[in-house]
Amino acid sequence: MQKMTHRITPELRLLMFEHHDYCSSCGYKFKEGDTSHSGYSKNDEPLYVCDDCDHLLEETAVRNVFMPRFYEIPPDKCKLWRYMDFTKFVSMLSMKGLYFARADCFQDIYEGAKGTLKNKSKWDQFYLSFFKELIMNPPDGSEVTYTDEEIESQAEKLLHDLEKGGINGKKRTFINCWHENENESEAMWRLYSSYLENAIAIRTTYKSLYESLGRNPSIKIGRVKYIDYQKNFAGVNDSFWCKRNSFEHEKEVRAIILDMHHLEKGKVIPCDLSQLLEEVFISPNAPNWFGELVNDVIDKYGLSIKVSPSELIQEPFF
Ligand SMILES: [Zn+2]
Known about the structure:
By secondary structure, the protein is an alpha+beta fold.
């Protein structure tokens, strides 16, 4: 078996990220526990392959045990919406980027939570046993020389670190939220713009969002899972991909970026707005002049984007 070189070029990293579930050579769909091999062909082309295609690698950079993603990626063409007031829209145009808010600044107090406090002892028990098991069965098969007390206290420490990591994670996780919907949503106008006169909705697709953010493997984009925290816990790695069932109407798709060093309450990630913004919709409550203003501002920033009135105000017939 080839020795791993750990040489990972940006091209290989992108290939591993985008092909995550499939062998880039034969298309085999990886199953949990399979080995993925990443490296380069004779011509130094990046490859991310399965066991059967392993022979194509002239150089193996890394081998990994395959784990499914912690989040589900929506289909390329899935429509995503963001409802906002005019100032936020202008700020987005002027900054040429998307604002990612720090997770601890969200109103939802369960943002990043693993479960409800009343169920915490179950969670603690589970992880204490899990850690004890790990300590008593080291992966390299070496002999365990700890006393029962030492195992107990090491497991307690790991549990404490896990909890600390969870709390700190809120200050290191930055999120940008979207609403997945084929259509414009009356409820979202209410919720995110309070049905303001000066509100707009922007529409894009998953693919445009991903590409306008530069196909960046550090930015994960996926669907939020809605779970019943009375009965379930979020996983250690997917707590920022879970929300309470009572938020299900949001049908949220979010982009998440981790930053260990950024201390502000949010960060702006550069975005190609001409690619992102497929159409802009004007609030159903807006006066006529507001649509012209939105068009003017878009012009001033050198963009060419279709601006449409809200479909909610189209006249019915009976
Ligand atoms: Zn293959």
